[in-house]
Design a protein that fits this description.
mainly alpha
Length: about 250
């Protein structure tokens, strides 16, 4: 067995053991359900009629928000690298989005927008700065001398982007997506909890809290972790394959 896999297995086992001990010490499932109680609840939860519908509801809205952030982040970063005025114009907006607490955005969006759009907007706002900043940094890290030679010989920007800038952007974009997908899920579900968005995972978490159903709360948390991790791995895998195909052109 690979040492990294073994160490990860040991760390997970230690965490589960600690969790089990704490649940025994507390002695109240409504305060901290044991891992066994959570697994039992999860085994019934996934077969409930509205489980798939609830997961897909949140998955679709968070996914749309992230994809919008991904697309717009790349486009604006490319534009900002070519025209510094755009970079200076976007700087305060990106800085504010980075520094303002998620809860503030959620409350503002609840005042201004329909709650059904809340998850999409929050997922977009949280993922956008990471994508934009990393792609912009990748553009700036490209070989400047090679770029100047391309300009000198009037090579179209599309070809310069493909062969000069894209290899530089690749590690930055993949790294940012590894972080941004998880951030989008955290913020999106938080928005659903605060906004009590009907039919969402966030609503299920809110109901668990209201009725002191700690096993349900932790079971849905496990679902979020798995779906978020799956989304991240799938998107990054597709992105890496896309880069490989582009490199073969």
């Amino acid at each position: 067995m690979n040492k990294k896999v073994l160490y990860k297995f040991i760390s997970v086992f230690f965490l589960l053991t600690l969790w089990q001990v704490l649940s025994i010490v507390i002695g109240a499932d409504f305060l901290l359900a044991s891992p066994i109680s959570v697994v039992k609840r999860l085994s019934t939860l996934i077969f409930e009629n509205d489980f798939i519908k609830t997961v897909l509801f949140s998955f679709a809205r968070i996914g749309i928000g992230f994809l919008c952030a991904f697309s717009l982040g790349i486009l604006l970063a490319i534009a900002a690298s070519r025209y510094h005025l755009i970079e200076y114009f976007l700087w305060p907006f990106v800085s504010v989005i980075k520094s303002v607490p998620v809860a503030s955005f959620i409350i503002l969006c609840l005042i201004w927008l329909d709650y059904e759009k809340l998850t999409v907007i929050i997922a977009f706002l949280i993922a956008f700065p990471a994508i934009y900043s990393n792609v912009l940094q990748g553009m700036k890290n490209a070989d400047k001398q090679l770029a100047e030679v391309g300009k000198l010989y009037h090579v179209p920007f599309q070809r310069r982007f493909l062969y000069i800038y894209l290899p530089s952007i690749k590690p930055f974009l993949i790294s940012s997506c590894n972080v941004a997908v998880g951030m989008a899920w955290k913020a999106g579900v938080a928005a659903e909890v605060i906004g009590i968005v009907k039919g969402s995972i966030g609503e299920k978490l809110y109901e668990s809290k209201i009725y002191f159903q700690n096993a349900d709360l932790l079971a849905w948390t496990v679902v979020i972790v798995f779906v978020s991790a799956f989304s991240e791995k799938l998107f990054v895998l597709l992105l890496v394959r896309l880069f490989r195909r582009i490199e073969q052109i």
